[in-house]
Amino acid sequence: ATLHLSQISSAGAELEEGTPGFLPCFGPSFLPFYGPRTDPARTPSTDTGVAYRGRVLLELSTHMGTPDGRQRDAIAPEDIARVQRLLPLRRFGLCGVFYSATMVPAGPELLRFELSLGNYGDTGDVTCKPAASVTPHGCPVFDGTRYPSLPWYGDKPVAAVTSSWEDASHRWDALNLLRAMCRRLVSTHG
């Protein structure tokens, strides 16, 4: 079964059958922010890469009527710190084995790869504990026929990151339940 948003949402008026739907909404969901990676050894014109900068918990909802002109105040830092301590955390891990690195840019610069989960694993971020999240530096070698690659040969580098985030499994459980229900509906009525 397919549920069309235009058939179940309300555009401010009741639907054809007289049953009101719902107004558009988003979230609550985390919205991540990314920005340029800063390296003190380089000039701003040669910065490359993107780094995680933070996230905001965002929820948008639509209400009927005219705005009342009220403004929302910012959340006090002590309130944020108090809530962060009470959030249930879940530990996540990311492990990557690099089998090959081909078609890399040629040149005398040393290259390495980095895994990160948010700020965790980002070698430029000092707010998180260091992790084995980067491969060793290597200089690209031209194979003589096609393109430069990193000479890892038999030694395949491994990078790993562990991090702790808010436990949002209640959202995943609902999504997984809906997907399972959708698959069952398709298989029985398809």
TrEMBL record:
<dbReference type="GO" id="GO:0061025">
    <property type="term" value="P:membrane fusion"/>
</dbReference>
<keyword id="KW-0677">Repeat</keyword>
<keyword id="KW-1133">Transmembrane helix</keyword>
<keyword id="KW-0812">Transmembrane</keyword>
<protein>
    <submittedName>
        <fullName>MYOF protein</fullName>
    </submittedName>
</protein>
<dbReference type="GO" id="GO:0007009">
    <property type="term" value="P:plasma membrane organization"/>
</dbReference>
<dbReference type="GO" id="GO:0016020">
    <property type="term" value="C:membrane"/>
</dbReference>
<dbReference type="InterPro" id="IPR037721">
    <property type="entry name" value="Ferlin"/>
</dbReference>
<keyword id="KW-0472">Membrane</keyword>
